[in-house]
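Escalated from tier 1: NAP holo job.
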Amino acid sequence: MTGKTAIIIGASRGIGLALAGELAGRGWQVTATARGDAPELASLAAASNGGITLATVDIDDVASCVALDTALTGKAFDLVFVNAGTYGPAHQSVDTVTAAEMGALMMTNAIAPIRLAKRLLPRVKPGGTIALMSSILGSVALNDMGTTALYRASKAGLNIIARGFFVEQIKPLGLTLLNLHPGWVKTDMGGPQAPVEIADSVRGLADVLEALRDGGHHYRDYQGNALPW
Ligand SMILES: NC(=O)c1ccc[n+]([C@@H]2O[C@H](COP(=O)([O-])OP(=O)(O)OC[C@H]3O[C@@H](n4cnc5c(N)ncnc54)[C@H](OP(=O)(O)O)[C@@H]3O)[C@@H](O)[C@H]2O)c1
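Tier 2 regenerated the structure:
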């Protein structure tokens, strides 16, 4: 697919960085964001023959989101992909988590992605897609253990807020909303024991993004499998 345009939010490292490279390799024109120094992304962009351009945003910071939108004046996208996310406190304990820890986790993983997607919605082209990086750990139906409770809550929160956003604002425009699970991937977050290589994850995600454009709201993994909410 060539001539398509995408913005990937949270592309400094890990899955977001590799997805920027994957889409650019497929001929997409990619705008890739970081919130601070991002040497790997800068190198990727420098080697991309103009296929990747850089922008800045911290999704938790409203002023930063406003500045990004201003910097994008005149631009429109076939794909807005909010990939940025965090694991939250390592202890993942309902018993000990503080309000500040939980607030920060919910802001980054559940609230800020939707808030930024809403801000960028007018920039999505007809027939386009908004993608949000969820996780299989956000599935209530598939949860059979108490571990990673806080992270699970944040991604379940993302999923349910996304549904309301879809019904009220995305579906009437005929756009597609995807809540995606990248697999358990070898990144800083996924750790070295993760079974899925970054390259395999982003190849699968890009296949799903290019194929699933039916105006629906879907929860899919990187292999295209539908996940139960
Ligand atoms: N790895 C897995 O196995 C796995 C599984 C399921 C879902 N996911 C999800 O996939 C996404 C990417 O994960 P990853 O494994 O690539 O994680 P990662 O290596 O830890 O990268 C996280 C990315 O999110 C960015 N980010 C975090 N908070 C941000 C903020 N407030 N504003 C802007 N950018 C922010 C980071 O930027 P900085 O470099 O500035 O920190 C970085 O680019 C996340 O949403 C994660 O929850 C990952």
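The longest helix spans residues 99-120.
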